[in-house]
Amino acid sequence: MARISLQGLGHSYLAAPKEDADWALKRLDLEWQDGGAYALLGPSGCGKTTLLNIISGLLRPSEGRILFDDADVTALPPDRRHIAQVFQFPVVYDTMTVYDNLAFPLRNRGVAPAEIDARVREIAEMIHLTDRLKKRAAGLTADGKQKISLGRGLVRTDVNAILFDEPLTVIDPHLKWQLRSNLKELHQRVRLTMIYVTHDQTEALTFADQVVVMNAGEVVQVGTPVELFERPTHTFVGHFIGSPGMNLLPGELRDGRAHFAGRPIATAHDAGAGAADGPVEIGIRPEFVSLGEQGDGDAIPATVTKVDDAGRFRIVELRLDDANAPAIKLLAPEEQPVAAGPARLRFDPAHTLLYRDGWLLEP
C-alpha cells in the first residue's frame, strides 16, 4: 500500500495545448493517505477516468508528477506500479472456473500453490462466491462477474492501491446497494487504498471517506460527504450533490450584509471585509428551507406552485412575486399539510451561504 501524491498534475490530449479548454485535466495537487477510501465524482467528460488512468500508468501526464509514498512513478509502466484496476465492464475468463479466475494474478507472479489456495478461498468468502468456486465464470450473472473482477483486485497482497472505474454501471439497480455495501465492508477489512470513479453521488458518498468533486477538468472541492453537503465551496457542488440540489438565488451584498427579496437575511458566515457590495448568489439547500406562519412578518412571502410526493417527504416548489426570480424548493415532512397558494418562507441561517463567481465568499 502507498500514500499517493499528485503534484502539479495536468493533461491534454493535444500535442500543443494553448487554451484553457485544451486541457482535459487542469493543474491539480492532491494527496491520498495510505489505506483510505476515496471517490472521484463528477459528470461524464469531467476528467475522472483520465485522472484514474494517469494514476494506474495507462496514461502519461502532460505535466506534473505522481508519487507513491516518496517514490516518483510518473514514468513507470502499469506493471511496475502494483496497481489493481477494476473497469466498468467485467473482465473475466469465461472458460475458467471462478477459482481459476481469482488465482490467475497470483499464478502469474509465481506464488506458491498453498498460498494461492488460502488466499483465493479467503477472498471468495469476502465476496460471497465460495459456493461457486468450481463453476465456470460463463454461467454467472453480470454482478457475479463483477465480483470476480473485484476479487482479482483484492487477491494480491502486493498492490499499492485498487482503482475502480464506474464498476457498478452494468449492475441491476436492486443489486447495486448490496455490492456497494460489500465494497465498503471489504475496505474496512483489508484497509487497502481504494479510489472509486463515479458520476453517481450515492455511490461516492456511501463509499468514500473523502470525495474529490470534479467539473470540466478541474477539482472544485475535496471533502467528507458531510462537508460537501453542508458547506459546498462552489455552486457546482451545491447543484450536483443533493436531490434536489441547492437553491441558488439572486441576492445583494450591502455594507457587508446579505439581502434577498428586498430584505436583510442572516447567513452562516461573513462575506469578509474585502468583499465589495454588489450581486451575490444565496445558496440554501431545500432541507434547510421551511414554511413559516402566515402572520410571521420576518418570513419571506411566496406562493406554492407545485407539490411532489417523494414518499417520506414532499418536494414543495414556491415562487416569489418577482416573475424573474427562480423557483425555490423545500422539503416538507409527509405529514405536514401543504396547499397551493400564498405561503411564507424561512431560511435556516446556519445553512445559508453566500457565493460570488461560483465560489463561496469567506473572510
Automatic annotation (TrEMBL):
Cross-referenced CDD domains: ABC_Carb_Solutes_like
Domain ABC transporter intervals: 4-241
InterPro entries in the cross-refs: AAA+_ATPase (IPR003593), ABC_transporter-like_ATP-bd (IPR003439), ABC_transpr_FbpC (IPR015853), ABC_transpr_MalK/UgpC-like (IPR047641), Mo/tungstate-bd_C_term_dom (IPR008995), NA-bd_OB-fold (IPR012340), OB_MalK-like (IPR040582), P-loop_NTPase (IPR027417)
Pfam families: ABC_tran, OB_MalK
UniProt xrefs under Gene3D superfamilies: 2.40.50.100, Nucleic acid-binding proteins, P-loop containing nucleotide triphosphate hydrolases
Example of a GO MF term: ATP binding
Protein name: ABC transporter ATP-binding protein
Originating species: Marinibaculum pumilum
